[in-house]
Structure formats: C-alpha cells, structure tokens
Amino acid sequence: MKPYSRRSFLKTGTLASAGSVIAGNSLLSCTGSNSGTSKGTITVDPTPQFEISPTLFMQFLEPLGNTDPAIEAAWDYGIDNWREDLVKCVADLSPGMIRWGGNYTRYYKWREGIGPADKRPWLYNYYWGGKETNRVGTHEFVDFCKRTGAEPLLGVNFMSDGFEYFKNTSHGENRFGTLEEAADWVSYCNDPDNKERIKNGATDPLGVKFWQVGNETSYGGKDGFSMEQAIFNTRKFAEEMRRRDPSIKLIGWGDVPNCSYFSGTEGEEGNDLWAPEMLKANGDVLDMIAIHMMGIYPRKTEVLKGFEFFNNPEEAWNEFLNLAKIAEYRISKLKGELQKIENEAKIAVTEGHLSLSPHNTNAILQTWLSAAYHAVTMNTYLRHADKVSICTGADFFGDRWTVNAVKMPVPGGESYLLPIGTIMKLYKKYGGNTGVNVIESPADLDIAATRKEDKLFLHILNKNFNSPVNAQLDILESGLVSGKVYEIAPEDKLTYVDDNNRNTFEPVEKQLTNLSEISIPPASVSIVEIQLA
Known about the structure:
The chain folds into two domains: about 5-50 and about 435-530, Immunoglobulin-like (Sandwich), CATH 2.60.40; about 55-430, Alpha-Beta Barrel (TIM Barrel), CATH 3.20.20. By secondary structure, it is an alpha/beta fold. The protein is globular and about 65 Å long. α5 runs parallel beside α7, α9 packs parallel to α10 (about 370-385) and α10 packs parallel to α11 (about 420-430). Helix content is about 25%, strand content about 25%. The chain has a nine-stranded mixed sheet with strand order 22-21-24-19-18-17-1-20-23, covered by helices on one side. It has an eight-stranded parallel barrel with strand order 2-5-8-9-10-11-12-13, surrounded by five helices. The relative contact order is 0.17.
C-alpha cells in the first residue's frame, strides 16, 4: 500500500467535505464479481430475547478544568443559557441518559451550584487544573437533560472515595463528601415539599431517578477506600438516600482495582472485580453495578500514537479491532461473576473511551479508522443488553478532548459529531427495543440484531479493511416485506470530520432491491432495516 502523508490526509478530508467519498460501494444487492469479496450467510432468529434499556446509550459529562473547559465553553453568557448549537446537536444525538460525575465528584459540593448564579462560589478543579465557576449546577444540568430528551444521572460525592486528602486540601478546604450531603441532594431534587429547592424558584421536583455512589472507587489504591470500606459505606449511603426517596435507582461500584493496566487477557486474573462482594453485601439496596471501560490503549504497537497511522491506516484499523476485544472480555467476565452469585443487578458502564497518546489531540479519533473500535463495542453492548443497561463510548462534548462524542468549536461555530457520536446516533435512531439472536454470520462481519414490533435491525461492521462481503439473508420463520440500508462507507478510511467538515459521515439511505442478499462495503458501518411479514 502506498504510504500516506499529512498532505494526502488533508486532501482526502477536503474530498470528504464535498461528499465524494461517502457512498463507497453500494450496499444494494449486486451480482458482479469482485476478486476480494467474501461470502456467507447471515441467519437471524427474530424472536425477541430480552428488552433493551432506553438508557443504554449514555453520555458522560464531567467538568475537566484546564484539560477541556467544555462546561464553561458550553454556556453562552450572552444569553445566560446553554449554547443553542450544542443543544440542537445533542438533541439530534438523542442520548438515553447523561451522567454528571467523574473524579470531579470527589470534591464536588452540590450546594455550591444552586441558588443565584452571581452568588455561587468558584472551586478549584483538583484533578484537572484551573477553576470552575459553578455556573452550571443541578438545575442547569437537569434542564439540559430535559431539553435533549435524556434521563439525568447524578454521581454523589462518596466520602471522596476514601481520599483523606480532601478533608484538608492544599488550599485549606474540606471537600470531603458526607452521607447527609448525598441524602440532602436526593431530597432537593425529588421531594415535592423541599423548601430549599422551592426557595430557589423550582416549585416542581426535578425528578432525578438515577444516582451513582462512588466513582472509580477501586482505583484509589492505598490512598482510597479498601473494598471492605467501600462495601460498608455504600450500604450507609444507599439506605439513607433511599429513605429520602424509595423510588430512586442506585448504582454501586464494582470494577477491578487496577483498570488502567487491564488489557483483558487471562494473565491478569489477579485483578479481581469488586462486583461480587459488593452485591453479596448490598444487592438488596443496589439496582446496578458499575465498571468503567478504561485502559484501552495499545500494548504492542505504536501505530495509534500521534500521526503514525498515516503510514499504515490498515494496521491502525486492525489494532482498533484488537482493542475492541477488551470490552467483550470484560463484559463477559462481569456477567459470569454475576451469574455465579445469582444476582439480578444490571451492569452500568458509566465511563468508557479510548486512551490514546497524545491524550487531548490524537487526530485519529476524528477519522473513520476509529469506527472499527466504536462499532464493535456498541455491538458488544447490544449483544449483552440482557444485563447491560448503561454503556458509554466517549466523554460527551468538548472543545479539544478527542474522545468526545460531540465536538464543540470555540469561539462560536457549530457543534458536530465525531465518529463515535455518529455511530451512536445511527444505532439509536435505527434500532429496536428488544434483542434477537444472530445464529450465523460471515467471519468478516461483526453483527448485533435488534427488533421493534415488526421491524428487524441488523447493526453491521465489515471488519475487512479492503473487501466487501456478500451475504445471504436467512430470517427464520419469517417473511420479508421490504428493506432499507443506512450506510456509512467512506472509500478513503482516512476521511475525517473537523470544524469545516462537520457532516462527513452522514449515513446514506438506500432501498434493498433484493431481500435475499446484501453486499457490505469494506470497513463500513451499516444498519439494515427489514420489514417482517
């Protein structure tokens, strides 16, 4: 393959903006020969197997300080409200849930973010640097969720996850979270008669149903909680928060102690999940158990670092496919542990993204190459949606953090979706509410199948970088009436999005002319929508 240069990268991006590389090969049935084409059969049992949670495709929002001052950049001080372009873009993305949390919760005091905006104090962002104005607090966050159709999820300050440092910080502050503060937050949001909220002008409850206790609690090492301490304090928090509102849904922490180095291989069995012991002790007060899909970075190759992918995009594509195996391994392992203890708690992947170098500026995440990871992980969550109720593929919106779903140019400009956002939007818009079984499929295709009433959806990634796949469709015990395809298939896999090329990866809609066979373009993501008899 001819080596790629930065010049050719920019050239292909320009072509993409003109829409000349979007369609790729047609996904319509074709009978022509292709020397590189592989063949096979896609066999699907359309019988609904399990319900898919409406909160499955979640977005995660954390004030990231100097790293990515996205919260401040998202607030339009000219109108003293959220940026309209951001609201419009997120409403189009249509996340099922938005989470407020992250390491920020270890020193977050929710009362500093309510009341008159000009009276709210600034706070130091201890993990990410800089300061936060608290202009965006509980009311603004819940309002953003309502305006974009998402369910809000609040992460509480869980005794700073055991970090004693936050009792007396370098600035002489006590940022340590207490049980009473967490319970008061539940009352503030959900108690119809809460005087504190009513005083701040909100007579109606905010109606926050979902709450997370602890963020990456197991990652603290000797400075944070031990598993036993986390289990003990989780029960105390959960019982008091439920006493304030018995209807809330609570998420506890269950990940491994050292996720930053977890590569999903059998040689790391000593890195044990907290989930089994947490649920044995607290399964009666927790609805879900959380892990984070972190530590996703290459161990044996440099191709995803910096601009190395220019020289070998196919190797980069295949490395993304390898990294996606970690998500499958970790979800399967957690499901197995829950099955052993016969616990009905659902799984919540409340953070998860690629961790590439350079951390804030890796350009590959704006290219189509990253779709190999994104599509496989989304399919993984769909296939395991009998237990996974929440999944996260990126860190939501930002102005320079390259694992965002939504890129927000500053100053001004129009917000747009990065490839992970494009794929999540495609899956959410053209997908079912029940999972069905894919019994057989060609080796080059990664497929998840869903159904809504009499419509069947096949979520397909062609993992092969160069060759299409022709596949016979076999839908068991069901007639096929009609079919459509929503396809993203750039001919040049270095095609990218940026501030000047925002709609590069808009899917192309096509009618299926032959319901018995489809052709999947190389390195493409497609939704095949089939009307069943």
